[in-house]
Amino acid sequence: MRVSVDLNLCQAYAQCCYAAPRYFRIDGREALFYDPSPAAADRVEIERARLACPVQAIRVQDPEA
Amino acid sequence: MPADARPERIVVVGAGLAGLRGAEAIRAAGFRGSLTIVGNEPHRPYDRPPLSKHVLTGQVAADASQLPSSLGDDVTWRLSIGAETLDREARRLRLSNGETLPYDRLLIATGTRARPWIHADEAKLRNVFSIRSRDDAASLRATLAAKPKRVLVIGAGFIGCEVAAVCRELDLPVCLIDSSPSPLARALGHTIGAYIGEIHRGRGVDLRMGSEVAHLEHADGRATGARLKDGEVLSADVVVVALGAVRNTEWMTGSGLSADSGGVDCDDHGHVLDESGQPDRSIAAAGDVARFPHPLYGGRRVALEHWGHAVAQAEHAGRLLVGEDLPVPYAALPNFWSIQGDMVVKSAGLTDGADAVAIVQGDPADRRFVALYGRAGRCIAAVAVDSARWLPAYADKVASGAPFPPIDTATDRPLREPEIRDPGFA
């Protein structure tokens, strides 16, 4: 699975970190760390993170695409 | 075919972020003809920002940042191949493998490459690095993981600051050197750069501002340090050259397009211009390589090396090539971010030409603030350090050319005008 985050948009609301804690993390006050290639089996978790983002900064490509 | 006919073949030169998003926009706009993407790296488009951050810390593998894409199988990828020449009369490219590739519409998105170290022989030393491609980042990562004794970073722009911060996260001694009085001084001015420099210094970066490297010392094909212009020698077993970027325009030489090391010129639609200033409506450019007149800055021609700009301008250029009617002029507000260790620096607008700056929110002493830049009484840029949520409000002031100094104040301070300072551009 391919993930990218528009960090211009990201404002560190950290909703992705709650939705998919294995793949998103805030360092310091607002520095987002994300895993750009999560395991395909965790599609649901990543989709939850994508939908939870208040500024819709997360883009995901399905593994089969 | 005439410029107003329906194109059947579209070629995108450059397989980075702008090339990818441009190609997606071309398909999203309904183009069903043949679409070819030419890229000189062997890889599908990947995201570069992680390369100078989490790839170097080892938290993300160098080959893990391939970009998500909506493109399907109806795209022809020509990778490990560069464009060598452009014949606009015949509307075809000659590629590095000798083939010719015809087009009806062409999107130029060849981006930039790292500016090489000033001495070519020293740039070839085994432990001298620059970062542009994921292969660059992978080899630097491997070197940092081997716990070098001291890293020397030449150039305290955004990439240099990010690399220095990574070194401290890895607990590596690092020296950051630049002829400017403070880090990021060219981009943000000395006043704000000095605050950011203090943050890095506080994290253990050995800042050598106002210093220049004369040459690298070396033995057995490896750099052993750097001799400064004042004669001091700094020892180092890794050298990272972060002196900015050079635009990839050489392949346009002889095409009649107005292009040089600062980019290829575009009109306010996004079409490229020829040497007499006439637009070629079959060609658009996007991303780092495109130099265009920005209406927010009096039509001054700018080429922006920003992630968000590559996306926005590529989408615009893709739709333009397919024949969509788009608002003129193209006027997206420039913005970027930089993650330096766990500190986030974000900006909206362009600081060039600023004659004043004010801290309008937060406090540099708390390492968290927003600086607003003014020029001739208007807001032209805002820079946020660990204050991302406040930036959009100031970006609005920049986009609308609101008066500077601002007449309202932030919620975290009493109602009075902020202290206006010299931004400190050289």
Automatic annotation (TrEMBL), chain A:
This is Ferredoxin. Keywords: Electron transport, Iron, Iron-sulfur, Metal-binding, Transport. The keyword Iron applies. InterPro entries: Fe-S_cluster_ET. The lineage of its organism: Bacteria, Pseudomonadati, Pseudomonadota, Alphaproteobacteria, Hyphomicrobiales. It comes from Methylobacterium persicinum.
Automatic annotation (TrEMBL), chain B:
Pfam families: Pyr_redox_2 (PF07992), Reductase_C (PF14759). Residues 410-426 have a biased composition (Basic and acidic residues). InterPro entries: FAD-oxidoreductase/Apoptosis, FAD/NAD-bd_sf, FAD/NAD-binding_dom, FAD/NAD-linked_Rdtase_dimer_sf, Reductase_C. Its cofactor is FAD. Residues 405-426 are annotated as: Disordered. Residues 9-314 form the FAD/NAD(P)-binding domain. It comes from the Bacteria. Residues 336-409 form the Reductase C-terminal domain. Signal peptide: none annotated. Keywords: FAD, Flavoprotein, Oxidoreductase. This is NADPH-dependent 2,4-dienoyl-CoA reductase/sulfur reductase-like enzyme.
